Amino acid sequence: MPALLFPLGLAALLAVVMPLVIHLMRRDELRPVVFAALRWLDPRPKPRQRIRFSEWPLLLVRLLLIAMLALLLARPVLTAQMSERPFIAVTPGLDLATVREGDDEVQLHWLAPGFPSTERPAPQTTASFNSLLRELDAQLPQGVKLTVVVPQTLQGVDAERPILSRTVDWRIVAGAMPAAQATATKLPVLSVRYAPDRAADVRWFRAVSAAWQTPFEAAGADAALPPKDRVLVWLGRGDVPPPVTARVKSGGTVLVGAQTVLPASPQRRVVWRDATGAPLMEAQGEGRGQWLRLTRPLNPAVFPELLEPTFPDQLAAVLSPPPSPARVEARDLIPVVGRSIFTRPSEELTPWLALLVAILFGVERLLATAARRRAAP
């Protein structure tokens, strides 16, 4: 559907009077020819009162050029015309016999990437359910009624209820979605850098890596830092050196001991507590990475969790949190209205009009040059 982003630009169409005035004022050059019969002509002939334009092809090209320039200033766009019929989105895996509508005026599509018609087989998709809902809501015209047919249990959802720009007819039917493939949590790889007086504390992290069956590497505080994809365990005292701080800001994760001083931050939070609720580890972000800080020395007398067999699993849960649950009851995920109306993108025709204006200008110059050559004696 065509539209104008700047309709006031059409005011430039008033300039079409300029070529008309120029061509009215212009007259073909008249060359007197003397011959004997002139004495028999009326010396006072009546002039013909008729408006005549010279160089019609040139005039038409100039008028068209001005019209295209005005249209270019108005910035025309082309918006895809979508159907205003009610739209029904069916979750793949459901039996279409339970959702068939008697009205042929509805649009029946799968809730899958591209939203294919239900006349095709149900696609296998791993796309986020919430993302598909938001995309569909953005694509449909504002007045279109949207019905979403879902099973009793949904897979692959986000952690929050969808917020859309329209009220959705949420229809729950019997059936099930294909189960999402479980993704195993990747265990981190530890690299320790320690001060000479903290060498005894390295054994706890070596034991954790052995329980995880992951590579382990330890070196003095003066050694080069490990690759950024590893978790750096910094066992030092006092302030953290600038290279370690730069590592966190660039996206790394650094675990420090209780003796290390971190700058105060309002983002600091407790991420691990003991059985009594006392904090064992704090976390705070900086730049694109994060700091993790133990609140107690690595001593079983004050940190008895070091001797528990669940210590490696608890540390892994902090360093590599498990993915958020992606399965929820459909009745708990009914979308709510609260999102602003999405303006569908339009295709601007400015580049094509600019090309057309350039072509018309070239034709106008060619015709004008030819007219001057014909008028020359």
UniProtKB/TrEMBL annotation:
Keywords: Membrane, Transmembrane, Transmembrane helix
Domain of life: Bacteria
Residue stretches making up the Aerotolerance regulator N-terminal domain: 1-76
Pfam families, A to Z: BatA (PF07584)
Parts of the chain that traverse the membrane: 6-25, 56-78
NCBIfam families: two_anch (TIGR02226)
Protein name: DUF1550 domain-containing protein
Organism: Asticcacaulis excentricus
